[in-house]
Each structure stands twice: as C-alpha cells, then as structure tokens.
C-alpha cells in the first residue's frame, strides 16, 4: 500500500482553474496529499499560488528537482500533450484538465506514455462522480434492470460566454484549444451521458459560429445512436443568457433528470422511480474526483476517467465534429488514425458555417 506516505503533488499552470478548483481540492485531502510545487511562466503568479511550496517557471526543472508523485495540468489545452508526457516520463501520475488534448491522436500519444502498471493519465471529468450519477449508474446496471431498458438521453450544455471571455489570446482558436464549446464545455455533460448509456455507434451533427468573434464553433447540435440501441440529443452553446446544464435519461420504466450549472448535489436530481434514493450526498466537485484518484494511487490501480474510460468522450466529440464538417452521419468505427479528424478536430477543413453579426 502506498497510502502510508503523503502523496506529493505539483501544479503546472497557476491560473483561475488551479486557484479556484484544484487548490481547494488538495486542501480537502490535506491528510493524504501535499502541494510541493507550482510551475507557471509567470513567476509571480506561480509563487502566489504556491504559498509555502516551491515555485518554478519551467516544468522540466520542477520535475527534476521535486520528483512529484502527481502532476496536475492546468495550462491552456495546446500545452497539455507535451507537459503530460514529460510528467509521465518522470514517473508522475497526471491529472489533466479538459480538454486533455487537441485531438484524439494527441490523447493516444499521452496514453501511450503511461507505464504498464502506472504512472497513469486521468482527465478532469468531475461531473460524473457526484453521488447522483453514481446512484444512476448503479441502478441502470443492476441485475434485472430495475429502471428498464435505456431508450433516450437528452444532454444540454447551454451556457453563456461573452466577447470578453474570448479576449484571452489562446481562446477560440483551433490551434490552441482544439475546438470550441463542444470540446471545451459540453464534454462534461457528454462524458456523464456516456458513463450511463455506454458507447455510441453513430452520430449526426451540425455546428456553427453564430455570434462570437472566434474561429471555432459557439453552438453545436447532434443526434446519437448508442451501441445498446438507445438514442440521444446533444446541444452545446455559449450563446444562452439563461444558463443550464441539463441531462435527462428515459428508461422503459423510469425517467431520471439532472438540472444544474457547474456542479450538482442530490437535490438537483429527480426521478419517477420509487427506487431513486442516493445513499449519500456527494457533490460533483474536483475534490470528489481527486479523492477517487488518490484511492487508486494508494492501491496502485488505474484511476477512473483514464485510459479507455477517458478516451470515450474525446472520441465522441471527434465524431461530432466529423459529422458537422462533412455533413453526413459518422460511425464510431470511422474515427481511426486514417481519418483526418483523428488528427485535427476540424479535419483540416476550412469551410465553417458562420452567421453574420448585425
């Protein structure tokens, strides 16, 4: 057991997500994990986030000097692949903010840098780890299917991001974010949906740049057929003044719904099933997922939201982009290394639907 020693963690990227989500998550598990170092190109920002920990302006120097057990990657998406591989090569486990990579090809490169028994790369998909989602998966997979056969899923991420959000230089660009709101925002709810209904088989999608002054899409819509025969509808937007994250799962004998924005507790769930009664109330936070990652580290086991379990959502958004850009249905089997969308989410296709701003 590795749990006898406190796990030594480092953060690369000292921006808002690190300060507002990851540092509080580390503090919530202070008896098991310690922040020993922070790296950021802005030395003052690194020192401010580090507090009493060491501060660096270069991840390589941090890895050589500190030899952390866990590296939390909070930098812009275009930096993830090289930083994650460097940390894995140094023997550290990696917990990477989404999107973990700019493409499925990059994700597979990162996964290939894992060891046979670790270190492992895990992706921040905290929405699937609240007690409501865990309870839903338990009921959906229970013997005898107490909820009945899965039939329909609705997955909506209708958020709002203004022009000021995209004023940050790396945002809204294919080369630095990989894609738009689909892979950046909607992927959280998509990951939760896929964790309940399983792998997808076919997707038909549209995407467009309707209002924001960016290269990538600000809205996308998709219809999906799952391997189990169920169907789904997926909507993602940064154009919605009334923001909401909404998921609905219709089974043959019950409907389960979730309404929230950036995180949920049990009160945000509802169901027609008399069996709906989560045994505890665990929120869908970074701290919740970090606890499960630390459990896996202490046992020396692959953590959740890693390997094929993390790849599923990235593969789904790749299929969505492929369908949106080609204007045809896309089968999951088509998302392979010989597809241009495997290497770039826009497939290298320059045409993109754009509505004129009036």
From TrEMBL:
Pfam families reported for this sequence: GFO_IDH_MocA, GFO_IDH_MocA_C3
InterPro entries: Gfo/Idh/MocA-like_OxRdtase_N (IPR000683), Gfo/Idh/MocA_Oxidoreductase (IPR052515), GFO_IDH_MocA-like_dom (IPR055170), NAD(P)-bd_dom_sf (IPR036291)
Gene3D superfamilies in the cross-refs: Dihydrodipicolinate Reductase, domain 2, NAD(P)-binding Rossmann-like Domain
SUPFAM superfamilies: Glyceraldehyde-3-phosphate dehydrogenase-like, C-terminal domain (SSF55347), NAD(P)-binding Rossmann-fold domains (SSF51735)
Top-rank taxon, per record: Bacteria
Chain ranges of the Gfo/Idh/MocA-like oxidoreductase N-terminal domain: 7-116
Domain GFO/IDH/MocA-like oxidoreductase stretches: 147-244
Molecular function GO terms recorded: nucleotide binding
Protein name: Oxidoreductase
